[in-house]
Amino acid sequence: MVKNKNGERLNRSSTCKTKKSDSQIASCKDPTLSDNPAESHIPAISPELQTTGQGQLGFSDSIYLLASVIFQNNHLEKPAAQRLVNYGKERGLSLPEVKDEEMQRSSYELAFNTLKYQELLEDIMIDSCFYLTQPMPDDQMGLVAVMLYDFQDRKFLPRERQQGDEIEQEVRDVENYLLRFKTKLAASLARCRIKHDLLSIECILPESVKMKQERSSSLPLYAWVNTLENSLDEVQSVLESAGFSQVKSMGQLQDKTFCQDPHCGDILVFPAQLKAQLYTTKLLSDHKLIIQDKSCHLGPHAVCSLLPEEGDVLMSGCFSGLTVSHTASLIAEKRKDSSNDQPIVYVCVSDRTDAQREELQQAVTAMGCKNVKLIPEVFQSLNGGDKRLQEVRVILLIPKCSVSAVSNPLEFILQENGDTELLQDLSQGSIAQSKLEALVAQQRKDIDHALKFPKVLAVVYSTCSSYQEENEAVVNRALEQAKARSEQEGEPKQANFRLSPSPFSIPDHAEGPEETEPFFMLEPSEQSNGCFLAVLSREPEPVVKETPHEVLVRANAKGLLDKIGSRKEQHGHTNRMTKTTPSRNSQLHLSVSIQSKNQETKGSNSTTLCGHQEFTNRRQSSQGKAKALHLKVSQNTVSSSFSSPKLENSAPKKSITSVLKATTSTPSLHPAPLPATLAVRPRRAPQEVLKPVVLVLPPVHFPSFFQPQYSRTRFSPSFNYNKWRNPTQSAPLSRTSGGLSKDAMVKSRPLL
């Protein structure tokens, strides 16, 4: 679809609804045909196809030149045996810098339409003998093609020149040649239409291209509300005051109506013909309402729903400043009540020219976004160690794709900074296999690299392609590669990614994917373009139920509990192997100390005999009481070592030596083994286990009436060790209890 130099869209039929017979077409006389009898056999063109719209005056010379360069770079080059017209060998020409957006758009649209009808235009040039008779160099045939398309679109009427237009001599030369051949050119077009039975030239296009053209003519306008400038309620109030009325669904859109998008709440939908009336409200000129395709809105909304309270966003791929501004405004609106700093949107612009970077920055500034930063480095060179990206938690990846799901691909490419090298393939309705493979290879690299950032929680992958190779295949392969890489490098499970459900709710009246579908897809229709979106979320950290022992071991490995777990493990092992070891050690030290002192004090053997006999009888008669006394002895012994430090310090050093000598000099002396039932129960896990200590008791002096023959007698556990006192304060026990009298202890006290 072509525009004139005033920017007005040309009105042409895009479908073939009825057909006329050859006689009906031939019966209409073409006013542009010559009266020469030699040319009377050429059928005429129907008068209804010769009418032109108001203001259809053609384009300026600059637009023709720019369109010819675009066509030269993207035209279909046929094999030499099938080539009808040669356009020269020059390709990849640099485009002149154009600041006028409307001029650039018109040039691309003229070149794109010429690409659609390249084969038809070549047939006309050959059939009319224009290519063979005119002395035009091959490198100017691109200019001839674009001007011929515009010439036939104007029904071969001359162009009206406007004052102030720059004059390009080569454009004027080609125009003069075409005007001379206008009759033959029109006749050749008529013969071609008769041959192919075409009501209009659009009928010669592939079916997929015709379908896209039909859909594009009815696509509604999608516009998102810039919440940095105003709110949704304010925009709706302005529209209602301007005569617009809100309806509930898109099926009710007609005249001056609008509705909310079923997937994104901040998007309003208008009929296609209301763009001029929207400008009268100043919402568009004040950047409060921004017109943009719906497929560009889903990615920013997905990022906003996935971003945590504290985190930044990294954007990479093919998108415009409008998409960046939409993402930044959504995040800023979500965090406006937060006391923390606003999240930053980092944008990779390595593949853009200086003019494109400046344009992006101007668009972001005009929208009022202050949380956007441009990164000039290539996305593949960035990694998690970059200091600027330490807080990045979500990556929005919009790679270059085939744009095969878009009904108006040219408009989309121009608005979203797309790949203009796809124009030739899109004009024919299919993408070459080599180009598709190149796109897929780059998409795989981008998504694989995005999954390598260690702190990223989610990656949003979005395309406007209808090819499975660019959508599901790329995502599934990336997940498999990430899983294999984590297993090979020994990474934990949370290093893997998985597909997450779509963040968009599907209303009851809207057609959409089922809830079980892992991807979000919109099919191309008369209401919207198609798109594909996938959310790859990092696996959550697995919940591990640890035992108390494992908690202590893990804490000790980090140096938090001073190796408590290891001591507990050692203590538990000791309890399992020799449960009576602490009690036996205490009994051994007490017994050895008593025996060594008995050897030093001799005499009074009768009293010792009686006391020992009484101990033996009591042990045999009351085993239960002996167990309780043994536990009490062990507890009091341990407590006495901590409750009387002065007593331990005041003990002579020779007591340790005497104990060692007693143990080595009397190998037949062994402590009485205790029953297994007397073992001390190990402490529970939460309690702190005390360190094992060596107890050194003060020396005990017995009277001299202890007989030597009883030096090896084993003492009963029922002996009340709990009443041992300091040597300076010790009192002898009464004879009736198996002990010594006070007078005997006083007489036998040694001199210190």
UniProtKB/TrEMBL annotation:
Active site: C464
BP GO terms, sorted: methylation
Keyword Transmembrane helix: no
Sequence ranges assigned to domain SAM-dependent MTase RsmB/NOP-type in this UniProt record: 211-539
Keywords assigned: Methyltransferase, RNA-binding, S-adenosyl-L-methionine, Transferase
Gene Ontology terms, MF aspect: methyltransferase activity; RNA binding
Gene3D superfamilies per the UniProt record, alphabetical: Sun protein, domain 3, Vaccinia Virus protein VP39
Binding site for S-adenosyl-L-methionine: D351
Basic and acidic residues compositional bias, start-end: 1-11, 482-492
SUPFAM superfamilies for the chain: S-adenosyl-L-methionine-dependent methyltransferases
UniProt key word Methyltransferase: yes
Biased amino acid composition, Polar residues: 575-587, 724-739
Region (Disordered): 1-41, 482-508, 568-587, 724-752
Family: Belongs to the class I-like SAM-binding methyltransferase superfamily. RsmB/NOP family.
Official protein name in the record: LOW QUALITY PROTEIN: putative methyltransferase NSUN7
Organism (species): Cottoperca gobio
Organism classification: Eukaryota, Metazoa, Chordata, Craniata, Vertebrata
